[in-house]
Amino acid sequence: MHVIFHPDVTIFPDIFSLGCFFLIYAEIHYRLPFFPSRYYRKEPEIIADAPTRLQPREKLPVLLIVKDALLFPIHFIKIRVIITDSQNYEFESEIQIEEKIDDTYWEKIFEIEPEETLHGTCTITVEMHFRANGRMRVCINDNYRLSNSKPFTTHFAKSPLPMAADYLTGDLHVHSNYTNDQLEFGASIEATARLAKSMGHSFVGITDHSYDLDDYPDNFLKNDPGLEKWSAFQKEVKKRNAADETFVILPGEEVSCGNQKKENVHFLVYNNETFLPGTGDSGDKWFRTRPDLSINEVVTRLSESAACFASHPEATPPFFQNLLLNRGKWHAPDYQQAGLHGMQIWNGEEVNSDASLATWRQLLLQGKRFYIISGTDAHGNFNRFRQITKPLLAMADLANWQVFGSHRSLILHPGKATTNSIAQALRAGQSAVTSGPFLSLHAQSDDRFIAMGSEITTLAAQLTIHALSTEEFGPIHGITVYRGDLLNQIEEIILQENTFANPLEITFELNINAATEQKFYYRVALVGEIKNSMRMQALTNPIWHSPVDI
């Protein structure tokens, strides 16, 4: 049972809350009966946010979110934004708001016109003035009791994101405020698009949970047979895309479904025409954790325009999530599902990257045409991930963990982009993944251009590797070309370069040959500097080489 008392919000734990007890987002009103909470307060969550980087000549969007003011109304008076550069020069902007807020969710974006002299990494402090419970309050960046209120860090870029012509880039695993339940929520679609554009992205994949999209809009504990929330999500995406031809929201769903052990795993589905139910790990009802659909049943229900990828498949759920919500991970038989296009290899962190890479390589060597994508699993956290680390006791602001845009996908896409065309490119594997620099691979054979995800059928061809970086992401340290021998199931390095005339812009060509009885794939990996404790790296999807008799 889940009971909320107003105005003192004491929550009797439901199974979802208990299952997520040791890995939860910064929901400050969650309390257990008879146990005090160090971060609980009789105020709504008040959160400021900003992008981690800003494209040249872009205004700085500062996002404000107030959540649960329906329970704890406030009067927002003003904000003061202070930007400090590396030379300790300060730029200030004060904005009057003067608004009473008593909604469940309130959000506004304020655009700051930065001075042209601001370049490089700057700190941003958002000072928020409001009246709550009859007294004046001032908080810095958020009103969490245990937050350190440290400034945001934003890179004011001199150069755009490193990109080649005919490529798009974006984060393919993001949650909006259509994800809203006991313990997690995201920012609006509009805010997500606005901040993503300011960072240099050209699309974003919004993948809200299946167990959130089937709820009533005003009650996350009850399922809506009319699917009003799902319909509203689809309509908002279409309206946003129609209003802005320079940026695409790729509508998606993170479906909870059953793996081969009948555990709940997550499945990223893009551009599907109908809703896919998945409440197995929603915790709506105690001990009812059986998946609604299996992985196979999800795939068989997809429309022709959809693309589907295993979501953070190598991440092992915490013990209590497995015990109480029946959450598991993807296993070897699950990857063999016909119609599965690939896997999310990075999820806004590097903890599981080695395991994901090893699984992908094994599948490729087994002959499976399997593609990788990248995203962050960001829940409205554009600059930092605020997380409860010790239930009822401690919170932390985590750097380099599921922060929007830290890991993204690069898609080969000449011409105007639509939801259908982006999904088609993903299905075809015409993409690479990166945490910073640009990387691409293509082949030329008999004057035919062969993209990533495609196949060379002639005996000889020429590979072209193209890599770009900027001062922001640092020089490229190494590029490695791998050849997978499908007959012997061995992957070997056929080229490794660590010294470059220009480590920010690299192009080289490699002639390849094969006999008709040989079958290979080629892929490329890039390694760069470590920036802010995160390795700059990129991976391409493969090109296959299967010569045929002509």
Quick description:
This protein is mainly beta. The chain is 14% helix and 40% strand.
Q: How many DSSP H or I helices?
A: 9
Classification by helices and strands: mainly beta
How many distinct folded domains?
2
Cα radius of gyration in angstroms: 24 Å
The overall average pLDDT, rounded, is 90
Strand segment count: 33
Low-pLDDT parts are 1-23
Can you offer a commentary on this structure?
There is one protein chain. This protein is mainly beta. The chain folds into two domains: 15-411, no CATH class; 436-545, Immunoglobulin-like, CATH 2.60.40. Helix content is 14%, strand content 40%. The chain has a 15-stranded mixed β-sheet that branches. Strands 3, 5, 6, 8, 9 and 10 form a six-stranded mixed β-sheet that branches. The relative contact order is 0.12.
Describe the secondary-structure layout:
Blueprint lengths: L14 H5 L4 E2 L19 E5 L3 E2 L5 E8 L6 E11 L5 E12 L3 E8 L7 E13 L2 E6 L11 E5 L10 E8 L14 H11 L3 E7 H4 L1 E2 L2 E5 L4 H16 L4 E11 L5 E7 L24 H6 L6 E4 L8 H7 L6 H4 L6 E6 L5 H13 L5 E5 L9 E6 L3 E5 L9 E5 L6 H9 L3 E4 L3 E8 L2 E4 L3 E2 L3 E9 L7 E10 L4 E8 L7 E9 L6 E12 L2 E7 L2 E3 L5
Parallel strand pairs: 3-10, 11-12, 12-15, 17-18, 18-19, 26-33
Antiparallel strand pairs: 1-20, 2-4, 4-7, 5-6, 5-8, 8-9, 8-10, 11-22, 13-14, 15-16, 16-17, 20-21, 22-23, 23-32, 24-25, 24-27, 27-30, 28-29, 28-31, 31-32, 31-33
